[in-house]
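Incident log entry.

Two folding requests arrived from the same account within the same minute. Monitoring flagged them as a possible duplicate submission, but the sequences differ. Recording both here for audit purposes.

Request one:
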Amino acid sequence: MTPEDSYDIIVVGAGPAGSTAAMYAAENDTSVLLIEKKKDIGVPLQCGGFLPHYPVLQELVPNAELPVTLEEIPSNCIHATASYQRFIAPNGLSKGFDVDADAIDRRRFDKHLAKRAAKAGADLLVGTNVTEVDGTKLFMDGAFGEFEVEGKVIIGADGPNSIVGKASNMIRDPDPMGTGTAFEYELSGVDIDREAVEMYFGKDFVPGGYAWIISQGGDTANIGVGIREALFEEHLCARDYLERFMYKHPIASKKLEGASITSVVAGLVPVGGAPKVTASHNTLIAGDAAGHIIATNGGGISTAMVGGKLAGETAAEFLKGKCRLQEYETRWRQQMGLEIKTAVYVRKLMDKLMRSDRLMTTAIKMITPEQMKAIQCGQLPDPVKKTLMKLNVGLS
């Protein structure tokens, strides 16, 4: 595929945020180019793919206008459906709450979203890496050759280390605790609760983070650890912690005994919140590039897509003279900024507690299932805030 020399809008990154941005921009009668560095969209996988159902997402971000593609998910993009979320404390205490959610096949889901963007009229250029950003001119190299393409608006949906964001100085403040590593295995031959998503805590297995088991249907599952490098023990890496969890955790190892690893998944997770600026006179960033993640659970599919929708719509309206491009900043913060900011605050309160098995167990014991659900949704009920602050004071 040979792109045109210029477009109204160029979107970099064909993940959930980028494809959603491209779809909504193209539906608003603008010329759109969607660029993806991967030769096969969705591969390699970089996410566990846990996605609550539409009504739950409405509770998660009640002020957001959710994209239609979150309501209409094809059945072939769903591995399995869960009805319960369970927390396992370091001492084995179990507590949880009801939740309706799917384990998404991100390979198929990401392709589905890219196809929706293309069907709306966007040009799609895969296997192409953006090597330089000069204003609104992009220099690219990849499977189809080298190109220089200029846009009127650039949307960066190219991940935590966004080249678009860096070019416009839309970057987060340095914070070693603000970026996590998600290291995961896809397994076959497991014997787990297919109806539940499980989250495990304990400093010996995931210091300052958590491990998870998500059924993908039948005897398959996604397991992983979400952890930050600043908390690694000397000479250990994320893989070491996942191996320790899989083979030595007193509860999880029994469920995973004899399983075969069929795929390795890894990616960065920006859990430090959004950069101070996510919009300029000609550039927007969305998704992971903009910190559109709920830091308490690492979930970012839905929030990334909300950000993408707003980026695509705002860029199209800007080109029609209906608004300033910087209005995107106000729009996404009004729709989900509070939840993202609150989740970062809660994550910071939990950081110290998760280094102490005793205090983490106490926290899980004291917090009710309803309060747990609120925390997962980026909310902080007053009783929970008082409990966490009291435990932190005791730790100090």
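Request two (distinct sequence, not a duplicate):
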Amino acid sequence: MMKKILLAVGVLVVLVLIGAGSAMGVATHKVNKTYEDVALPNITRDSSPEGIARGEQVFRAVCAECHAGGGNTKPVGVRMHDFPPDLGTFYSANITSDPEKGVGAWTDQEIARMVINSIDRNHKFRPMPPFPNMGDKDLAAVIGFMRSGHPDFAPEKAQPPRSELTPPGRMVFSFAMGINDKSRTAEVPVPAKAADSVEYGRYLAASVYDCVFCHSPGFDGSEAKMKNPDTVLSGGFEFDLTPMGGEGKLLSPNISPSETAGIGKWTLDDFLVAMKSGVTPDGHILRPPMPKYRYADDVELTALYTFIRSMKPNDKVIPPPAGGRPKVEPANNDPEKMFSSLGCATCHAPGKAYEAKLQGAKGKPVEEVAKWIRNPEAFKPGTQMPTYASLVDENNALALAKYVLGRTGGTVSEGTTP
């Protein structure tokens, strides 16, 4: 009897190994094959002033965070941390206008297909989350902005390494997320823009800003996640903070309308401030990889809020990361304590992701640095640094600016008092 049991177990193991081997073979084929049969979409740039403005709005909120990285605006490609390291090593591409290292030689249609299908001009798959349901008009606007002559797209020769998928990564992209090999043959319309439109808010959350993908568990695309109302927006997507100078894993928070675990108690004003400034109603700092939506207008953000409020509440509590969540404490005249309590240390302390960014303040007048601290977006539109104007008054900002300049080895002008 025992021999029969062992034989049965052995057969089962062999079958599992054969199945796993076959699945890996299929996954590797799907990742490496040439997708010449995926037609180029009939989408060309929108070069109108309105189109370029809309394109910048979408690009800054969606594309720049991946292709430029936090604190930068030139899309030269950076190391990505949006997926667990078990899936591979990921780098975004240089998408400046350089004809060799960037996308200067790509056609509008080739760029559009890359966004829709994650298939490049050589018909090869790249491990970039696709946007298969982004409307034609929004895609045309993004391409219009990229081709507008904006200095951020001036040719750059930087070329990040190619992304490398591990065997689990190939399985995830091939089966869990799926490779979008469907040609776009019909126009995808953009819903009518309205603050009170659940449809428009759903389009933004699932097809443009990817709120659904990042704030719902699993690796399925946003469209698939939307089919699971019990878990959509409940959080739990995993990010690795270690390469960014953090500690351990970060699970995306629950943003369902749950009053106990989500953002159900947030007012519309709370939501608008958090999305634009990066500070929640209870004083927590929205840390990377969560972007700041400074380029989104109030109608868009209100539509997002309307959509979120229409969804099913989920009371699942998402645990904080090992290092805790930075929280704003009442400002005081101790700049070292402010540097920590305001969350500055999360990004700029030794060993953190943006330690070197402090050197940008070196040699600047303390008053200018203080103004930067309170309203960084006034100096660098699109920056991912939170806005502290409502949290730090001018005197405390001056004290903190002196402290920051001291950390850079810079000097502080005489006669300036905090």
